[in-house]
Amino acid sequence: MATRTAAERRLEAKADYDAYLASCPSRQLLATLSDKWVTLVVCALGERDHRYSELSTRLAGVSQKMLTQTLRSLERDGLVDRAVTASVPPRVDYSLTALGRSLLDPIQHVKAWAELNMPAVDQARARYDRVSA
Amino acid sequence: MATRTAAERRLEAKADYDAYLASCPSRQLLATLSDKWVTLVVCALGERDHRYSELSTRLAGVSQKMLTQTLRSLERDGLVDRAVTASVPPRVDYSLTALGRSLLDPIQHVKAWAELNMPAVDQARARYDRVSA
DNA sequence: CTGGATCCTCCATGATACTG
DNA sequence: CAGTATCATGGAGGATCCAG
Fold first, then answer.
1. Which pLDDT belongs to residue B133?
2. How far apart are CA A131 and CA A128, in angstroms?
3. Strand D contacted by B66 CB (< 7 A)
4. Is the four-CA dihedral A31, A112, B32, A45 of positive or negative sign?
5. How far apart are CA A21 and CA A10, in angstroms?
6. Of A33, A58, A92, B81, which one's alpha carbon is 20 to 30 angstroms from that of A12?
7. CA nearest to B118 within chain A
8. Binning pLDDT at 50, 70 and 90, where does residue B108 land?
9. Which of B30, B109, B127 is the closest to A39 by Cβ?
């Protein structure tokens, strides 16, 4: 017991890390927003409302699990509204809440930046790769 | 060979997914930006230049590996500049490039959104958890 | 001080099967 | 149609050691 085990040190470090996060609560939310599917879903719903299957098609490559998981998370955070129509077959429509729409603007700026600067980044990468090759 | 194997279907789906990405190149860059450490590093360097060890301290909880990996990625993408001072002990300063600074504004808007709406999201979560409990 | 290299763990994610 | 449940795994990411 004289020295700490790796597990103990890990826990301790984690506690420090959490404390750091606690002092800046937005970090957690930022981490949530820093999710591939979150960005795509919010952008898609920003264009228009989507049914589950529409989102599934739109975000080609997303698994059911991740789509559902992402939607649940966004619904829980109050960014997305889930409207169930009890019919046969069942129908579920997703839309942005007012809070979700307020996120749309900032997120689209980042998206716009990515689109605008993709060429510059590509050049930078080519340059970097050429030098270190 | 009449039917596709799971592996083949997976490949095919992946190809479709890549094609989708290709039609919207910014997706890849967006994915890069949608990284926890990327956001934190850019924000930190947006405030002021940092040495490697300063970043390591600032982003409490980040491992050497992830910090280095993130910095290399940002350097390669032309967002961050790496200035080595050949001395003993060695000193490496990181700063944002012009391109990196241009990203700062959009990213900080998202950050500001997160800070502003953290309470609303918290309330939404509490409500959601209460109902489904 | 600033990392490079290595090993290893575990979790996010995908595949698959099943249901109201 | 819109999921849920379960299992499997690849790779992100952390721990550790070492070097310039």
1. 65
2. 5
3. yes
4. positive
5. 16
6. A33
7. A26
8. confident
9. B30
